[in-house]
Amino acid sequence: MNDVVICLVNPAAFDRAAQGLAGCGRRLADHTGSQLKAIVLSPQSPTVAQDAARVVDEVVVLDQGDYQPETALSAFAEVCRQ
Description:
Blueprint: E1 4-9, H1 16-32, E2 36-41, H2 45-52, E3 58-61, H3 69-81
Parallel strand pairs: 1-2, 2-3
């Protein structure tokens, strides 16, 4: 079984776009019998993670300070490998 992973990069909040992504991920995970995980990278990570936790099975928070694309990509890849 593979997990479904969504990435929330730099959202100001768990807004409609993030909710829509999480909802689609939830439906896909349910349809395939998988777990839904969210990777959150945001200055608002604690709040976004708490809100996302209502929809997803696991939230991984990446604390990197300022957003750096290369660093974020490496962190996402590592989380997905795990």
